[in-house]
Specification:
CATH superfamily of the largest domain: Ribosomal Protein L25, Chain P
Shape: globular
CATH architecture of the largest domain: Beta Barrel
Helix content: under 10%
Largest sheet: 6 strands, mixed, barrel
Strand order of the largest sheet: 1-3-2-6-5-4
Low-confidence stretches: 217-226
Number of strands: 13
Number of helices: 2
Strand content: 35-45%
Length: about 230
């Protein structure tokens, strides 16, 4: 298997911290990031927003930051979004040795058209969307694809049925269900009592009419006896 090229991103060191500085940084097209780990002091840097967005969009887990022409491999460990969940505002990067095994969560993507979905009234449920894995830093897959094309109604696919890349393992329960197909139960709507008869609702605490006397309108006050 050909060795994958590790994407690189240029970073700039930053000395200023705080929300106001971070806001100005983002307005300029950059965003704050922190590099930590391997018993070294945390390094506060900034990165180009569009470059980082593109890397994250491609499910990049391993990258190399370049500072003063020196490259250092890092894992994307934590991503912070804005309150709408639409814009990345901060990234945590962990230093890593390319020869060490690392633990990380990788996205699970369902592929293929399930047989069971060709019948009306069936639903494909996706229970597990990411998988905790362990492997060499250089062998982290961008995502793990799960073929569901063979699934019929009331069938499921579990963790033990996954075809993981060579060298990749997971600690998740082998019997855990990733996806399954079920028939959607039809909702039975019960008829409203008294709807057909058109009966007027009884006024709680109100005076009941005598025989031949019309019932008072709802909300009408009883005339005060003199």
């Amino acid at each position: 298997m050909a060795k994958r090229e590790i994407p690189k991103i240029q970073v700039q060191s930053r000395n200023q911290l705080g929300k106001r500085y971070a806001a100005r940084l983002r307005k300029s097209g950059r965003m704050p990031a922190v590099v930590y780990g391997h018993k070294k002091e945390p390094l506060h840097v900034s990165v180009d927003q569009l470059e980082m967005k593109e890397l994250l969009h491609n499910n990049t887990h391993l990258l190399e930051i370049v500072l003063d022409k020196k490259a250092e491999p890092c894992l994307v460990k934590d991503i912070q979004w804005n309150h709408l969940g639409s814009v990345v505002v901060h990234v945590d990067l962990a230093r890593v040795d390319l020869t060490e095994r690392v633990k990380i969560d990788v996205q699970l993507t369902l592929v293929g058209e399930a047989i069971g979905l060709k019948e009306a009234g069936n639903l494909l449920e996706h229970f597990i969307t990411s998988l905790p894995i362990e492997c060499l830093a250089t062998e982290i897959p961008d995502r793990i694809r799960v073929d569901v094309s063979h699934l019929k109604v009331d069938e499921s696919i579990t963790v033990k049925e996954l075809k993981l890349p060579e060298g990749v393992t997971t600690t998740l329960n082998p019997e855990a269900i990733i996806a399954a197909i079920h028939t959607i139960a039809e909702e039975v709507v019960a008829p409203v009592a008294g709807a057909e008869g058109g009966a007027e609702p009884e006024v709680i605490g109100g005076k009941k009419p005598e025989d031949g006397e019309a019932a008072p309108a709802a909300g009408a006050k009883e005339e005060k006896k003199k």
